[in-house]
Specification:
CATH class: Alpha Beta
Shape: globular
Order of helices and strands: EEEHEEHEHHHEHEHEEH
Distance between the termini: 48 Å
Structural class: alpha/beta
Number of helices: 8
CATH superfamily: P-loop containing nucleotide triphosphate hydrolases
Length: 255
């Protein structure tokens, strides 16, 4: 993985750190407070799930800490690098090299093979992808035999596993996953969660996942709950039943 980075992480530096994050949308007649002074710290080698009722701000939080959306106030650091002061080129480079993304809709390019999709972040970074590295990334997600297949020739679960390989090929500090099992059947979803759990168990990186599924959240080390743009508690080593009960309480309060 040394083509892109070769940083060693200190035990004290978080993979992701956000302080007093605020985000207000002003597109309608009244401003909508999506995030209200949210603090977040994610250690390397951990799996964090983010949950909350619809409109609680969980996807906004993910986009803001990943540098996909600006914040109105507060600071965000990825692997010790503050993103607020970065110019567009430096922010793009940071996202490309230090952050991996996995989305519900896979976001694979249909004209490219699985191997070409995995290689894309390296090509965008101006690197010549090592075929052995691409093969290994696909082997890590159990798809080394499908390298030449295009997305339309793969199942939804296989496409999401290609997306995970693509997210990991640059050796990121953190993988952000937004509803990664939302479009999958339960068996494919379990396989994707198993892979994300393995990713998070590597002390060189961490996983932050937004989900609405208590079973998915129970694979995480902790679950953070959002309500009305604010943190509304957390659970460590959660069970699906504990998560579901906490979510029911938050949804009742939101009504």
């Amino acid at each position: 993985m040394s083509d892109v980075h070769n940083s060693s992480h200190s035990g004290s530096r978080p993979a992701v750190e956000a302080t007093a994050l605020s985000r207000v949308y002003r597109t309608g007649p009244e401003p909508v407070i999506a995030l209200d002074k949210v603090d977040l710290a994610v250690a390397f080698g951990t799996f964090t799930a983010v949950m909350g009722p619809s409109g609680s701000g969980k996807s906004t939080l993910l986009r803001c800490v990943a540098g996909l959306e600006p914040v109105d106030d507060g600071r965000v650091a990825i692997d010790g690098v503050e993103i607020g002061g970065l110019g567009d080129n430096a922010l793009t480079k940071l996202r490309r090299e230090r952050i991996g993304f996995v989305f519900q809709s896979f976001n694979l390019l249909p004209a490219l093979t699985a191997a070409q999709n995995v290689a894309l972040p390296l090509r965008l970074a101006g690197l010549r992808p090592d075929p052995g590295r691409i093969s290994q990334a696909l082997a890590d997600v159990g798809l080394d035999q499908r390298a030449g297949h295009r997305p339309a020739e793969l199942s939804g679960g296989q496409q999401q596993r290609v997306a995970i390989a693509r997210a990991l090929v640059t050796g990121p500090a953190v993988v952000f996953a937004d509803e990664p099992t939302g479009a999958l059947d339960s068996a494919s979803g379990r396989e994707v969660l198993r892979l994300l759990r393995e990713v998070a168990d590597d002390e060189q990186r961490s996983v932050v996942m937004v989900t609405h599924d208590p079973v998915a959240a129970a694979r995480a080390d902790r679950v953070l709950f959002l309500a009305d743009g604010r943190l509304a508690g957390e659970l460590a080593n959660p069970t699906a039943e504990e998560v579901a009960a906490r979510m029911t309480g938050l949804e009742e309060q939101a009504c």
